[in-house]
């Protein structure tokens, strides 16, 4: 019952009352230390009161709980060295990491905890010592891996075509080699080494990604932008395309260019994932993801309807015309593709000045240009501009969340020998087996005093100004006189509050 009450207090809107009641309940806890403590009992979702405060973005309760966990090591004047307990914070030995819970929650207030002590210092220590070097090395290794795969695709086994052309539009001169003919020369053996590296890399990607999907869940793993959800979809699809290409090569099945092309596009697009390691480029990947899976997905439904309607109209208009003179609409699939290019203004409207165009083509093309180019494209630009404006206001916050997610990901996947535990063991200071983070803080007492005096002056001036406004609204007929009296009153009030403030400073000195 006590643990349930603690969880309820974390969710209370009155933060001061919740903190006092939290302390009162813990004062009656018999097992204040150890596994039987009320603070260490999780709820049905596996969250302790401390983790629940982080998930809900309750910064007041989080700071209150951290004040209870800290130990003052030494103090000399304004300098103070504090040991913060990293239990439930450090993701090194946690199955359900506190940092991962913060970056995966949908509440923006939770990300503000990343700027609080000791979370900010812990993340900075992990990222600067291990996260950034390992992440840069992983980015370089992945780029070299993609270069190897690209060269294998460029020099894939082809041979001249032996059969006759079936139509005048057939332009094929090379065809795919059979498996027995693909690995005969020294160059083929070099390509085989690159292909083996590519296949091994695809298998490693699947081995690393599948356990995380089973642990977190597909909806949460692929749906969180900060966790890199869309990039996880891209890299898993890329690995599957590599394996499909390998099967088609081993079975000598024609058409391996289809999965190979998809793999090239997806593999190189996944390079944008490594932009999150840099503060200048990281927020732009967030913008791209939000625009693609937010604005562009909704816009594509409208675009598909417009393209389908006008492509059908263009195909009907040119159905009776000679395709040798105007071949952009010679069949229905080509009509759809040509209309898509016209929609994005990639090409101009097809025209042949040697022959007459149908009259209805001019009418339909005029309506298409107004609807597609002037209306819908500007609508898409406005939607993306609004998304850019919203993301730009929280770009630094999102980048820090990306860094935390990347740090936790690397810490989980790398061996323990390459990523030692951060902090100091409590046995060195007689604090048990828990791990602590040493943080040095500088406290300026004069700054806090001046802040209190400033807040007192602001409160007095604000009260006096509110009273003046109430007096001005009593009688609007004599507004001019009221304004003069309000101005004189504000001057006397400011002098009074200023005099009172100087009296406080004089007595304190």
From TrEMBL:
<dbReference type="GO" id="GO:0005886">
    <property type="term" value="C:plasma membrane"/>
</dbReference>
<keyword id="KW-0040">ANK repeat</keyword>
<keyword id="KW-0479">Metal-binding</keyword>
<dbReference type="GO" id="GO:0046872">
    <property type="term" value="F:metal ion binding"/>
</dbReference>
<feature type="transmembrane region" description="Helical">
    <location>
        <begin position="257"/>
        <end position="275"/>
    </location>
</feature>
<keyword id="KW-0472">Membrane</keyword>
<feature type="transmembrane region" description="Helical">
    <location>
        <begin position="192"/>
        <end position="210"/>
    </location>
</feature>
<feature type="transmembrane region" description="Helical">
    <location>
        <begin position="231"/>
        <end position="251"/>
    </location>
</feature>
<dbReference type="InterPro" id="IPR024862">
    <property type="entry name" value="TRPV"/>
</dbReference>
<dbReference type="Pfam" id="PF00520">
    <property type="entry name" value="Ion_trans"/>
</dbReference>
<dbReference type="GO" id="GO:0098703">
    <property type="term" value="P:calcium ion import across plasma membrane"/>
</dbReference>
<dbReference type="InterPro" id="IPR036770">
    <property type="entry name" value="Ankyrin_rpt-contain_sf"/>
</dbReference>
<keyword id="KW-0597">Phosphoprotein</keyword>
<feature type="domain" description="Ion transport">
    <location>
        <begin position="135"/>
        <end position="393"/>
    </location>
</feature>
<feature type="transmembrane region" description="Helical">
    <location>
        <begin position="359"/>
        <end position="381"/>
    </location>
</feature>
<keyword id="KW-0677">Repeat</keyword>
<dbReference type="InterPro" id="IPR008344">
    <property type="entry name" value="TRPV5/TRPV6"/>
</dbReference>
<dbReference type="GO" id="GO:0005262">
    <property type="term" value="F:calcium channel activity"/>
</dbReference>
<keyword id="KW-0812">Transmembrane</keyword>
<protein>
    <submittedName>
        <fullName>TRPV5 protein</fullName>
    </submittedName>
</protein>
<dbReference type="InterPro" id="IPR008346">
    <property type="entry name" value="TRPV5"/>
</dbReference>
<feature type="transmembrane region" description="Helical">
    <location>
        <begin position="134"/>
        <end position="158"/>
    </location>
</feature>
<keyword id="KW-1133">Transmembrane helix</keyword>
<dbReference type="InterPro" id="IPR005821">
    <property type="entry name" value="Ion_trans_dom"/>
</dbReference>
<feature type="transmembrane region" description="Helical">
    <location>
        <begin position="296"/>
        <end position="318"/>
    </location>
</feature>
